[in-house]
Amino acid sequence: MNSRHKSTRREFLTGQAARDALAGLSSGADLGGGASWKPASGARRATQDYLLQLGRRAMACEFQVYLNAGQHAGAVEAANEALDLVQHLEDQLSVFRPESDVSAINRQAGDRPCRVESRLFALLCRCADWNQATGGAYDITAAPLVKIWGFHTRSGRFPTADEVHEAMQRSGSRHLTLDRDQQTVRFDRPGMELNLGSVGKGYALDRCAEVLSAAGVQDFLIHGGHSSILAHGARDPDGVLPGWSIALRHPLRAERRLAELQVCSGGVGTSGSGQQFFYHRGRRYGHVLDPRSGRPAEGVLSATVLAPDAAEADALSTAFFVLGVDATRAYCEARQDLGVVFVLPGTRAGTVAIETIHVTEQLRILDEGAVDETPTHGGAGD
């Protein structure tokens, strides 16, 4: 008779069911149907051949944590705690939730200084620094522009010149006052709004990593909707391949894997217009806006950034999509710790070209038929 333990809801939520299943595998458990399995090289090695995957819906996407099964005690509990934190951060950051901290800032900061929770204030300061460093290509105050182009509700529309001009008057981080002593935010122009959609998922991943690291978990991969990723340690810590393998999707054909990146530790962020766009008079307009012009950025299909943390990877992928290859190379001259992969329109119909900055052996092309130019490897200014 084949006796199987049925997991309770509590065991499922704490990961006990997963651990029990792995323990059964490592001891040569009966798998049903007369079949059985027994590890050839010890229980620990056998269970580490498996990945544990835990997921949670938040921030309009699926957040997932990947762990080497059986490697770290308490890893599943820590992963669930991290995913709980993501839901809390959504309550704080989302402009689609009237009770969120960011929504409160948008309602109040035009009238008076608004005090902000310390971690959120530190994030706003980083965003202001990125705005200055990129010459305005990255700007969390571009929410009025996002709205008039219809991307706020995923219903793209072509605005009038007057609408763009008016929205530009209510945008720009130069009109955002951050009092670092009092930790307050103030808008210098009426009608301004913040939107952290370009950095919120990466920030959440960084906070998740803090939870996992504090629990002693050193090898993990986390992603938020696949476009924001944070890797730490290795998929196979006892093997020969370092880090984690991350797929780079074709920006116009999401079902195709264009390339693969090997990432040991750090964030990976990708910005592209392949999912949100519309056509107006035969011309395609994507959702990544250039805050300096008030219009959609053009010339780049996707920009993927490898950075020390996921928040910076997210923010700079947006900025570099706007800046383009040459200006990004200039930016990266002083940042050897950044890696960039641009996917650009190819010279032949249906193909793409790839340009890289500070990315060499980490990148492997998988769909060579889709690429009509040899990737350009090397550092900025080479």
Verbal overview:
This protein is an alpha+beta fold and 382 residues long. It has three domains: 1-49, no CATH class; 101-187, T-fold, CATH 1.10.3980; 236-370, T-fold (Roll), CATH 3.10.520.10. Helices cover 31% and strands 25% of the residues. It contains eleven helices and 20 strands. The protein has helices spanning 9-14, 16-26, 43-48, 75-93, 101-108, 118-133, 143-148, 161-169, 200-214, 310-323, 325-332; strands spanning 30-32, 35-36, 51-58, 61-68, 114-115, 176-179, 184-187, 220-224, 228-232, 244-249, 257-263, 266-272, 277-280, 283-286, 289-290, 295-296, 302-307, 339-345, 352-357, 363-365. The strands form six sheets. An eight-stranded antiparallel β-sheet has the order 3-4-8-9-12-17-18-19. Helix 4 (75-93) packs antiparallel against helix 9 (200-214) and helix 9 (200-214) runs antiparallel to helix 10 (310-323). It is globular.
